[in-house]
């Protein structure tokens, strides 16, 4: 999924300053001081707390009656062993169930349990409260722009990772667009 890229020159002070601001914001989102408190608010604390991986897995499990483990791993963008460990934690906590596939006993299907659905609903409500607050900081037009930019940001990261896996060398810089210069008269 290669997109058209605008060239970026981090040798230019204004572009470097923007890159630093974006990088610092990304770090703050990922591990900022308030992120721990927000994670506790969203996913709980103590014995009933979910970790991010469990929450991501529940998010998918509730979308259909059952998942094959291979499909779940692909949807989570993790290797099958990571998905298996995530499901094992959910099963151990009563949030998911494992069953042999009726068509092929070698295949394991996983489903969200009633307890898992309740926990998912609680987390979803807290997310709704958070998003209502966050989106209230933006005008309706800015909300659309924010969604568009975040989707482009994710697609750009996916594109970068795709390039990493496609080529054994360093990720390539986006190609410079062909420049057309007006003829000069000397």
Write the layout of secondary structure elements.
Elements: H1 13-31, H2 33-43, H3 52-61, E1 67-68, H4 69-76, H5 80-92, E2 96-100, E3 108-112, H6 114-135, H7 140-166
Antiparallel strand pairs: 1-3, 2-3
Helix pairs in contact: 1-2, 3-5, 4-5
Amino-to-carboxy terminus distance: 44 Å
What oligomeric state do the depicted chains represent? Answer: single chain
Q: How many beta-strand elements?
A: 3
Strand fraction = 5-15%
Mean pLDDT: 85
Please bin the fraction of helical residues.
Answer: 55-70%
Per DSSP, the total helix count is 7
Q: How would a textbook summarize the main sheet?
A: 3 strands, antiparallel
The backbone outline, from C-alpha atoms, is globular
Report the radius of gyration as a whole number of Å: 22 Å
Ranges where pLDDT stays below 50 over 5 or more residues in a row are 175-186
Strand order of the largest sheet: 1-3-2
Structural class by secondary-structure content? mainly alpha
Series of H and E elements: HHHEHHEEHH
């Amino acid at each position: 999924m290669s997109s058209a890229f605008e060239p970026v020159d981090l040798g230019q002070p204004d572009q470097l300053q923007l890159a630093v601001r974006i990088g610092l914001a990304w770090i703050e989102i990922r591990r900022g001081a308030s992120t721990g408190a927000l994670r506790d608010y969203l996913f709980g604390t103590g014995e009933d707390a979910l970790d991010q991986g469990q929450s991501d897995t529940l998010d998918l499990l509730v979308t259909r009656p059952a998942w094959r483990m291979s499909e779940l791993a692909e949807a989570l963008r993790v290797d099958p062993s990571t998905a298996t460990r995530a499901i094992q934690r959910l099963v151990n906590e009563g949030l998911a169930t494992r069953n042999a596939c009726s068509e092929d006993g070698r295949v394991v299907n996983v489903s969200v349990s009633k307890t898992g659905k309740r926990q998912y609903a609680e987390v979803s409500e807290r997310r709704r409260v958070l998003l209502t607050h966050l989106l209230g900081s933006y005008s309706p037009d800015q909300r659309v722009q924010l969604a568009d930019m975040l989707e482009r940001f994710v697609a750009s990261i996916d594109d970068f990772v795709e390039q990493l896996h496609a080529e054994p060398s360093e990720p390539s810089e986006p190609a410079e667009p062909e420049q057309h210069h007006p003829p000069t008269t000397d």
